[in-house]
Amino acid sequence: MKARITTLTALALAGLALGCGSSDDKAEEAEHSATPQQAIAEIGKVRSGLAQALATYEAGDAGAADRQVGDTYLQHFELVEGPLGQADHELNEQLEDTIREQLRARIRADAGAAKVRALVRAIDAKLDAAERALAHQ
Predict the structure, then answer these.
(1) Beta strands in the chain (DSSP E)
(2) Are residues 63 and 106 in the same domain?
(3) CA dist 131 to 6, 42, 62, 88, Å?
(4) 128 and 95 inside one domain
(5) Quick one: 19 and 86 in the same domain?
(6) Domain containing 27: what range?
(7) What Å distances lie between residue 62 and 8, 43, 88, 101, 104, CA to CA?
(8) For 13, 16, 105, 107, which has the most beta carbons within 10 A of its beta carbon?
(9) Strand, coil or helix: 61
(10) 68-119, pLDDT tens digit by residue?
């Protein structure tokens, strides 16, 4: 009986793992199927999300700001990555690292509003370059 329960548990966990994989596959498929025009629209949402996160950080809630940056990255920048990677791989890598790693690290380290604001401005300038690269694709 114990072996049967263990087998059923293993099968259930395998089913959960497969279910998770399919949503990851869908997210990856959406990332690669976005058009340059859709990516440009998503850049606007990235800007908006980062501006909201900056305002949240300046209001004193670093934890919520960090979550907003993470959500913005996952929900919007992920859709930019495929087309931007084709248009300008290096810029895509820079933006990916700056948003996902550097900005979140500054927020988590409570680096201060001026340093977080400066990095958001630098990201914004790179997003301008991303829009130009995508417009020429």
Answers:
(1) none
(2) yes
(3) 53, 10, 29, 11
(4) yes
(5) no
(6) 1-33
(7) 43, 23, 32, 15, 10
(8) 107
(9) coil
(10) 999 999 999 999 999 999 999 999 999 999 999 999 999 999 999 999 999 9
3-class SS of residue 136: coil
Rounded Cα distance between 65 and 57, Å, is: 5
20 residue type, one letter: C
In this structure, is the dihedral angle defined by the CA atoms of residues 25, 27, 30 and 31, taken in order, positive or negative?
Answer: negative
Residue in this structure with the two tokens 């009986």, named with its chain if needed: 1
**Range in 4-8, 54-58, 132-136 with the lowest mean pLDDT:** 4-8
Q: Is this prediction's pTM over 0.85?
A: no
What does the block give as tokens for 39?
């990516």
**What is the identity of the amino acid at 137?**
Q
pLDDT tier, 19 (very low <50, low <70, confident <90, very high otherwise): very low
